[in-house]
């Protein structure tokens, strides 16, 4: 950028400024207009303050090292089954240990870190709300109020269900959404239940008698486990708590009123506040939802989401976002993808996401998640798709067009062929053509059913400027032909909701051959996700062996209405009391960001070394320039002194010559006068007394004498020239013309003349008379400033000649040892650090503006392949790229880049256009 400042300037535009001078009468003060800068400088100033020179991100929230450094995060190219089995084995081991402990003390398991019962009774709401949220307001008034939509009680499974069963009959049609907006998760559970061994693979350990369950979820590229007890939230309060239901039942004259109340309001799946099974004794849905909520910190964090994210978290697959209008060949889409549902893929679908409404389209609810559970081709060739609404309610949100329940298309033969029965299980069939016409958005999740699939991943931190560009970030070495799936993802902010900050990001990447990085030579680009921001991916059925590079681009968006991470921490710790929620969410934040600790530490060290080297180089160059200036000044001074000496010698010789001529002339005149006197001493001549008087009077040449005039002019001119040359150690400067000088005998007593306007009296030194006379005259301000600068330069030069310190005349590089590794000053210090300026706390225009742009994204790449020797390397920064890697070209269809037209002149040696 033109006119951009050096690194010594403050990054923060809100730095302290001097206070305006105070005046006795503020009303008389006139407001000064700011100096208007040229347009380009004004624009540069705006962008200079727009963003930080260096981007930073809080990698740790808690004040102590709560998260140990993670080893082996850059996982090797391991089999997918190995990572799953490792997490499953650890979960089983811990569940087994807890079961042994509970049996030893004859107690059911109570989760001490996520106890729903005590959290509700103490009115904390930590298990219900994320930090900064009050979605479920827990207070005495809401717990006792009949209209408040909050949980009212907590009980264990054996207290709620008469004959509790866990995964006895896993069926996708058994999932029913509760009092939370997590239809995306319920649809994912429905899809998972439709896959063979889907739910049992998610729940790896449990003991229903002890009341402990261990579930596995896929989070940020690795399997994590969540262990919970069997306590669940209920809609209605207990009998002993005041409620409208109890008051109504007490009006009935019965002895078993309490039993009736419990059986009516607190028994079976219908009594649960959150998700439930349609089977009144099945428990796998609420318990799995609870474990998923615990993994994210609370239930409110699950409100709102995308089916694809839920499918990834439950299955460990890779989701791609599809739009029905973008599908090129519908027949190929049916044959290769949709017909393989529950085998190689899982599908979720929705419609009307951007239509600003929650209406219906022939019974289909807008902005609501549905799941594909089956796809069949009838004998007649008709292609049908089976969908389910996770609401699980009768005739609500169901398709009402052709092939809906009770439509004319159904015959006995078709019902027998599909095994379909009309009912209230929220399941309906729709033709494939109507599916792609009514549903606009699909989430397709690939399942890795083949045991040969492997995964290798890396995590890095990426600076996100306001105008993002592609940069080389990763290198892939494929040793054999293999299918390849690339996934670029960012941290899942749902796990530390409330601490996401103001920035959201979108990811883009391109895959190139190593030797073909041009924009037009890419192999494939990432499939952009418009709704799912968490990850982007691309699938290559068969990629030949070779070396490849990945160019990455991250774009950022800022929501200034959201608080920054530091503002949230400040708000939550302001009271300086115990804050369990901040500790819990802060730990999740630190745990997630620890994935990039190693990389960002390496980048910080590289940048520190680069900045130190750059600052040292700048100091050496500046020291060299100063030395060269001093060297030139010394040479000029020597030459000037030599010239002045020569002039002085010439002047002395000329003075000597003039004196000699004057003496000879005086002698000659005296002789002539004597002869004339002798000649006149005859009759009528002077007497002896007159001759003696004449001899006693000094002989002085007349002012009007031609020889005297010439002598006076030459001496005055020489004195003036010599004074102007010798008055400065630098280059000669112009001196005002002095008055014409006259020569007086050295022994003649002259009368002092008072100075004019307070000036010093003129000197009587014969050598400098003319020069000082010129110096006495008033000079313009410019001449005075030039004289001062020249004198200061001469003084500094003289000091430099005698100094042996940092300002030595020789640019010795050993002086760099005086600077610490954290000193990035680009100019060598001549004086000690100045004292800090007094802080001024008055508001300025910049202080009222938002903080400068400062965005950093934690990005991870996962490479799925069947090559056991695959290598994935991270490209570290080099040169001046600030950790961004080698810069790549813009996309070939980039509108801004293409607006520049064709530029082939430099490459082809021809014209600059076509």
From TrEMBL:
Domain of life where this protein originates: Eukaryota
Annotated region described as Disordered, given as residue ranges: 1-43, 605-849, 884-914
Listed Gene3D superfamilies: Cysteine proteinases
Record-level Gene Ontology MF annotations: calcium-dependent cysteine-type endopeptidase activity
Basic and acidic residues compositional bias, start-end: 620-638, 646-677, 687-706, 736-753, 776-786
Start and end residues of each Calpain catalytic domain: 155-448
Record field: compositional bias (Acidic residues): 801-820
Record's compositionally biased regions (Low complexity): 725-735, 787-800
Protein keywords: Hydrolase, Protease, Thiol protease
Catalytic site positions: 183, 368, 389
GO biological process: proteolysis
Assigned protein family: Belongs to the peptidase C2 family.
UniProt xrefs under PANTHER family: CALPAIN, CALPAIN CATALYTIC DOMAIN-CONTAINING PROTEIN
Protein name (record): Calpain
């Amino acid at each position: 950028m033109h006119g951009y400042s050096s690194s010594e300037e403050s990054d923060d535009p809100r730095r302290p400024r001097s206070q305006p001078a105070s005046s006795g009468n503020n009303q008389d003060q006139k407001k000064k207009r700011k100096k208007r800068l040229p347009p380009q400088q004004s624009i540069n100033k705006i962008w200079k303050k727009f963003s930080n020179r260096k981007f930073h991100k809080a990698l740790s929230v808690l004040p102590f090292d709560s998260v140990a450094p993670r080893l082996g995060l850059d996982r090797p190219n391991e089999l997918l089954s190995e990572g799953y089995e490792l997490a499953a084995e650890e979960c089983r081991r811990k569940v087994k240990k807890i079961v042994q402990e509970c049996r030893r003390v004859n107690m059911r398991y109570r989760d001490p870190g996520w106890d729903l019962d005590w959290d509700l009774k103490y009115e904390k709401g930590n298990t219900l709300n994320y930090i900064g949220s009050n979605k479920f307001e827990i207070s005495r008034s809401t717990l006792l109020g009949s209209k408040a939509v909050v949980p009212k009680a907590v009980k264990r499974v054996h207290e709620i269900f008469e004959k509790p069963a866990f995964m006895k009959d896993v069926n996708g049609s058994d999932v029913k959404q509760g009092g939370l907006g997590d239809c995306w998760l319920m649809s994912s559970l429905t899809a998972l239940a439709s896959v063979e061994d889907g739910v049992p693979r998610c729940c790896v350990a449990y003991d229903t008698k002890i009341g402990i369950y261990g579930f596995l979820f896929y989070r940020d590229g690795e399997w994590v486990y969540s262990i919970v007890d069997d306590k669940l939230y209920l809609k209605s309060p207990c009998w002993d708590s005041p409620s409208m239901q109890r008051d109504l039942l007490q009006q009935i004259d019965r002895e078993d009123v309490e039993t009736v109340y419990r059986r009516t309001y607190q028994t079976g799946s219908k009594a649960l506040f959150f998700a439930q099974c349609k089977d009144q004794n099945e428990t796998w849905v609420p318990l799995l939802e609870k474990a998923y909520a615990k993994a994210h910190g609370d239930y409110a964090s699950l409100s709102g989401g995308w089916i694809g994210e839920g499918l990834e978290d439950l299955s460990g697959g890779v989701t791609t976002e599809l739009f029905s209008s973008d599908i090129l060949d519908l027949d190929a889409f049916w044959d290769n993808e949709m017909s393989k549902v529950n085998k190689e893929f899982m599908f979720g679908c929705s419609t009307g996401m951007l239509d600003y409404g929650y209406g219906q389209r022939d019974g289909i609810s807008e902005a609501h998640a549905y799941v594909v559970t089956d796809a069949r081709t009838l004998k007649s060739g008709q292609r049908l798709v089976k969908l389910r609404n996770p609401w699980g309610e009768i005739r609500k949100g169901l398709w009402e067009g052709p092939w809906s329940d009770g439509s004319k298309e159904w015959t006995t033969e078709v019902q027998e062929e599909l095994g379909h029965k009309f009912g209230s299980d929220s399941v309906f069939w729709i033709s494939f053509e109507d599916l792609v016409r009514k549903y606009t958005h699909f989430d397709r999740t690939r399942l890795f059913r083949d045991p040969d699939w492997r995964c290798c991943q890396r995590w890095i931190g990426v600076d996100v400027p306001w105008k993002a560009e592609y940069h080389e970030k990763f290198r892939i070495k494929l040793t054999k032909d293999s299918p390849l799936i690339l996934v670029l993802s960012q941290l899942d902010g749902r796990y530390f909701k409330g601490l996401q900050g103001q920035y959201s990001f979108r990811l883009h990447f391109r895959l190139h051959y190593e030797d073909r990085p041009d924009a037009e030579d890419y192999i494939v680009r990432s499939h952009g996700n418009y709704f799912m921001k968490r990850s982007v991916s691309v699938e290559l059925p068969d990629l030949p062996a070779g070396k490849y590079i990945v160019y990455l681009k991250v774009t950022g968006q800022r929501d200034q209405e959201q608080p920054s991470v530091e503002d949230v921490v400040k708000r939550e710790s302001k009271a300086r009391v115990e804050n369990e929620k901040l500790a819990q969410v802060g730990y999740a934040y630190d745990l997630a960001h620890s994935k990039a600790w190693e990389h960002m530490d390496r980048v910080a060290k590289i940048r520190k070394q680069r900045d130190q080297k750059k600052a040292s180089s700048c100091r050496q160059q500046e020291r060299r320039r100063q030395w060269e200036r001093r060297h030139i000044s010394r040479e000029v001074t020597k030459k000037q002194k030599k010239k002045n000496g020569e002039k002085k010698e010439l002047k002395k010789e000329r003075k000597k010559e003039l004196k000699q001529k004057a003496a000879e002339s005086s002698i000659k005149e005296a002789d002539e006068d004597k002869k004339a006197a002798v000649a006149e001493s005859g009759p009528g001549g002077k007497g002896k007394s007159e001759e003696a008087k004449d001899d006693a009077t000094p002989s002085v040449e007349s002012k009007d004498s031609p020889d005297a005039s010439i002598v006076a002019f030459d001496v005055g001119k020489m004195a003036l020239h010599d004074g102007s040359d010798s008055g400065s150690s630098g280059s000669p400067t112009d001196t005002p013309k002095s008055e014409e000088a006259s020569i007086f005998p050295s022994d003649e007593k002259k009368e002092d003349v008072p100075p004019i306007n307070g000036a010093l009296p003129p000197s009587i030194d014969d050598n400098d008379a003319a020069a000082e006379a010129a110096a006495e005259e008033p000079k313009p301000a410019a001449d005075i400033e030039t004289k001062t600068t020249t004198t200061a330069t001469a003084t500094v030069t003289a000091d430099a000649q005698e100094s042996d310190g940092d300002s030595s005349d020789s640019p010795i590089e050993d002086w760099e040892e005086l600077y610490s590794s954290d000193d990035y000053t680009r100019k060598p210090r001549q004086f000690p650090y100045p004292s800090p300026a007094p802080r001024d706390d008055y508001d300025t225009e910049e202080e009222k503006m938002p903080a400068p742009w400062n965005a950093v994204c934690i990005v991870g790449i996962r490479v799925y392949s069947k090559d056991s020797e695959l290598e994935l390397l991270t490209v570290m920064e080099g040169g001046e790229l600030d950790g961004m890697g080698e810069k790549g070209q813009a996309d070939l269809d980039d509108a801004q880049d293409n607006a520049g037209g064709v530029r082939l002149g430099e490459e082809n040696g021809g014209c600059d256009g076509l």
